[in-house]
Amino acid sequence: MRVARRPVFLAAWTWLYMVVMLAPVLLLIRISLNPGFSTTELDGFTLRNYRSVLEDPQMLDALVQSLTLAILTMAIATPLGCGLALGLTRWPGRLSTAAGVLTVLPLALPQTVVATGFFLLVWKVFTPLPFDSPSQLLAHVTLALPVVAIVVRLRLLSIGREPEEMAMDLGASEGQVLFRVLLPLLSPAILAAAAIAFVVSLDNFVLSQWLCIPSDCRTVPMVLYGARVPFPPFAALASVTMVCSLAALGVASWAWVRLRPR
To answer: What is the pTM (predicted TM-score) of this model?
Structure first.
């Protein structure tokens, strides 16, 4: 009898988790479609709030700033993380383990601690660097780089050294092994890691807040946090950001399924 009840319990727990997870998201989307300015009285559907995101300078600038930081973070952290993963995987000895622990340190520490450290670093060391978009980009890349390294390194460990050794036995050079063997095999993990880096930057609040002094570097999380109450226009802005995140993860999932069999 116990064996028969376990699947039912697991299924019920899974559905409960799905409901708890999706309920706030669905409520946010519903509020974003509300024609009124109330978050409690829902009296219809309209896309006016989404148009207001494009018409309001504050929200549009925040959306552009968030997308710009996310795209640049993805473009910078992905190749650096791939190189770091290759170096850590192919670096024998105990120093590789220590370096791997230091690599994931930004993820293990609270973001308030990391943000405080970056604030002091820009203030005391990188003095030419302004508390603006460059400082935010540096912090976002530092936070996203270990994520990329972990994903790509796991893929490297699952592949093993056999494909490289076979290619080198057939006369391939190190460059040919890298570009014609490793990178095609790593491409699903690289795309997935790039999507995660995009989402990590797009959703970040603490680092962006601490490293932004002028108002022209405010991101979407900063604007939403300043609003406090998710009025329909701000709910529409949050929904647009959520769609961007889901689109990036969707592309990564599609690429993973398409490229993994190869």
So the answer is: 0.84
